[in-house]
Amino acid sequence: MTIHLGAFLNAGVQGTAGWRHPDAAPGFLTAAHYVRIAQVLEQGLFDFAFVPDALSVPRSLGDSFAPAVKWGSGTPRLDPVPVITVMAAVTTHLGVAATVSTGYHEPYNVAREFATIDHLTGGRSGWNVVTSFQDAEAQNFGQAKLPPRPQRYARAEEFLEVTTRLWDSWSDDAIVADKESGVFGRPDEVEGIDHDGEHFRVQGPLSVPRPPQGYPVIIQAGASESGRDFAARWADVIFCSHESLESAVAFYADVKARAAAHGRDPDQLLILPAATPVIGRDAQHALAKHEAFADLVSVEAGLSRLAYHVNVDLTAYDVDGPLPTLEEVGVEGHYREVVEFAEREKLTVGQIGRWYGARTEGRLIGSAADIADTIQQWVDAGAADGFVIQATHVPGSFDEFVAEVVPELQRRGLFRTEYEGTTLRENLGLARPERGEWKARRK
Amino acid sequence: MTIHLGAFLNAGVQGTAGWRHPDAAPGFLTAAHYVRIAQVLEQGLFDFAFVPDALSVPRSLGDSFAPAVKWGSGTPRLDPVPVITVMAAVTTHLGVAATVSTGYHEPYNVAREFATIDHLTGGRSGWNVVTSFQDAEAQNFGQAKLPPRPQRYARAEEFLEVTTRLWDSWSDDAIVADKESGVFGRPDEVEGIDHDGEHFRVQGPLSVPRPPQGYPVIIQAGASESGRDFAARWADVIFCSHESLESAVAFYADVKARAAAHGRDPDQLLILPAATPVIGRDAQHALAKHEAFADLVSVEAGLSRLAYHVNVDLTAYDVDGPLPTLEEVGVEGHYREVVEFAEREKLTVGQIGRWYGARTEGRLIGSAADIADTIQQWVDAGAADGFVIQATHVPGSFDEFVAEVVPELQRRGLFRTEYEGTTLRENLGLARPERGEWKARRK
Lengths: 443, 443
What we know:
Chains A, B: Belongs to the NtaA/SnaA/DszA monooxygenase family. The first copy, chain A, is an alpha/beta fold.
């Protein structure tokens, strides 16, 4: 089998250490920056670029925005939708996926936005569905606090039902555009949805015809129980992060089984863990590169990053003591990883901070051959259908991966040597949803 | 003095007759279509492209979506934001403006979207602020009916205050990005807004640094009393439509005086009426071209268009009788124009329909020299600082205007021969707002 590759790209600075990297490009607010990255990803035959998001400047240590601004930790963040549109405008095969929260948008607008991008890109769009995770986000939208997870997922559930129904509100051949007769469309092929639910009342139809892909590719990353159930039904691609092969194998088996239990073909749900390659001439050279990268982060910068990821102000805790158990954290997956690692290594809060600031997801440190070995091992073990490649810095990390690891994967028959199709679904090997597919995916 | 030119471009079909034009390009859902148009507009040194919008498939005759779909009347409509992003990605000087409603979005999201586009385009973005005008739009967002105009403008007022304050939440030099020290930003140059109003509670700061233009160019088109007051304070550009030079002169004087009364320099508020050129070898040839265009519309298609513009189902009225007075119409400017024309010409509802279907705003029918004459006359009379050029069909209308009228305007010294600046504000001759400008513009 062959693997699929996404590229994880912040629309702004890359992590707390990434912008400080000596080779990091400075123009992270300019179109040229994203054009440059899109081009190397397409040259490397990546399936898609994936832009995460959050709807606030993170408020972290001391319940303040200051640390995030001071250290470039989680801010700035451009709106990912125009960023992926620029990346798509200069490529012809690269898929482009943006994160949009179901918590603080309207489903009509989101359905329309992605339907539009799917048309403009000829079917290369993806939507990473998130429910948000910080109080600071809630506070930009009239709420005092982030709603509890079950409430966020209940809204997301209804949100997905409305958006998929809106994408289905035009049949694939509703437009005739016959200049001779003057008939533009077939009214009986366009219908309202008349949705009247707990969170939304939406009449429809969408003002945009059915997307080329039927539905844009739906990506989800929730690691919680609610997240897994949601993703097993709605997602085409699951993005996850695992510190060990064992936990990745268990997650893979669990989610594929959930998909099958919902009547889906498990092969039609791709699981792509995060991987951050640091590539050297040999293992030692790569380790030295990683160490130099980790040295770019201060304890405070790292704790600031952790504080906003878990949505808890950590200044209450002694930096020389252990991290107490936190309740109701923001990103559960990240928190679990921290607890596991800190207990194993007996780390203090301060040490956790330094580690977390330079933490990358799924570190792959070694030569290109070493990295290809690990990728092959994970795929053979049933842990992954491919990976979402993260960068210590841009564009350098992607340049190196495309120049060194991609050819190695191709030599082993693990990765494509040309794009198989024109839409993102075609390249991912995913079927195009028939009109009405939403009925099978909803709860 | 020289004039400014915008280009009015539906992201979808151009009017009810436009898609039927023999030369109309068919690919109105593809990026290539908008790329092609962006390139000719930049070649013609246009200040900006302007994409209107509405958040529904129009429901018109018989309270049904069917006529809009059948005649291609107001549908489909792509989301304008990705469309202008594509147009900006392939140009270097053309400004790009998208319509986004204050009625059915969140100010944090809208502020962020335009700040992002302004960064990605190096300061070429504009936001056309609308409050929506159809019940069918309200019904896609949980409302049974469009709220009354005063309520819509009260929300818009607060919306603009929040978005401009969010754009000001970072100072222009908040980012230092010093790789050596590890200091990314200056926390005391970034502040929340802690807005707590009638419609919105927004903490801020925005997660995007201050836009290159300070504020993206703000465009407004309201012709009502509330619209004029709002525009005189907030707008940089007013887009309007007038059937006669007299009404245009009166409107121009009124709005400039309102701006001055609010303490603004009236020259810093540009008034650009709509103009739809139909260019012939001579007047007779142009008239024949216009007639052929008007013949493309049926009575029903035209009435469908009028019905959704005024937000009233017109099937209750006898097609052979006069149009009764309508209360609480959608677009007041359009309605007033219809009434004026129908009374003058003694038209029945059916005749109004046929006329309205092919109605264009500010028809300029003649040779290139005739059209330049009228443009000059309007500018000299104090009716306009330039025009927003509308197309009977695309890309043909813009191709012809750029090839024939632009050189004529240049010969007369009425239009630029190269772009003056790099940002849209620079090309429009508008000052860059200082941080805090919102205080002077709010009510």
